[in-house]
Amino acid sequence: MVKLNKVQLKQNKNTHRINQSKAETNTELKKARKMAHTLDLEGITKAISGMGVDEGALISTLGNSHKDHRKLFRKASKSFFVEDEERAFEKCHDHFVKHLKLEFSRFTNAVVMWSMHPWERDARLVKKALKKGDESYNLIVEVSCTRSSEDLLGARKAYHSLFDQSMEEDIASHIHGSQRKLLVGLVSAYRYEGNKVKEDSAKSDAKILAEAVASSGEKAIENDEVVRILSTRSKLHLQHLYKHFNQIKGSDLLGGVSESSLINEALLCLLKPTVYFSKILNASLNKDADKGTKKWLTRVFVTRADHSDMKEIAEEYNQLYGETLAQTIQEKIKGNYRDFLLTLLSKSN
Question: Which of 63, 190, 207, 298 is the most buried (most CB within 10 A)?
């Protein structure tokens, strides 16, 4: 039997270790290839695309994945990751990080808003609208014109508590010109909610509104009488005014009578709130909607789900767009966010 010297023994040990390492590497590669074969790239991409996130799909796929599994996902997802060739790794696009944070937050934000007292929720919505500026003033119109007198008064009380000032003075200090007069008037309202209407007053107001709309060079939002009518009259009175206006003018009052979108939206909120909310929902569910518009979806659900008009909104949506609201939510929204919205919607049934 040939005896091996110490050098030969050491070489043999090194060779054995190298062969063992290669075998382990090959085993890992086979394991990675096997996992890669079963990797549902399309499913993962779908789970994090669109509105909401399919948490269940992510847990079952990415949660159980191997590191090589995730590397393959990063390399294959060019819209989410970019290869840093110099440093040899795949890094997230900034827009992908922002997208994921936003989509994961939709469910959280909806739960937080739903948990709030309705007065606080509305007060915070008005404050946010003031911070965002002109493009969000329609939200102040929505809160002012679709809430009951008691709920609007409650929102003003909550505003005192939260921000140590009145809603009216905050609006007056942030907004100027004709918009200020209208919005302060709307949030200050405490409308009569009884079932009596003076028909002659409704007809007179309809004539005033018709004349204001017809006056060349004068914007309806700058007319004190128009502001008075919209900010003080009961919603039932305005329904009768609507009928008389259409008879006098031969055209629909809701057909866009003013250069001011705030006037037009105030009229729609006061006269046909279910149409208003249906249009808001449809805009928020449009695949091309911007980030701000998509947030309207949560707002409508959490502010209306406790009210009887949520059922009417769903019926109006079906009439306007030919599909049920529940069906649209099921198809376009994902995960916990979808389930929460459907739960809120089911309350109206």
Answer: 298
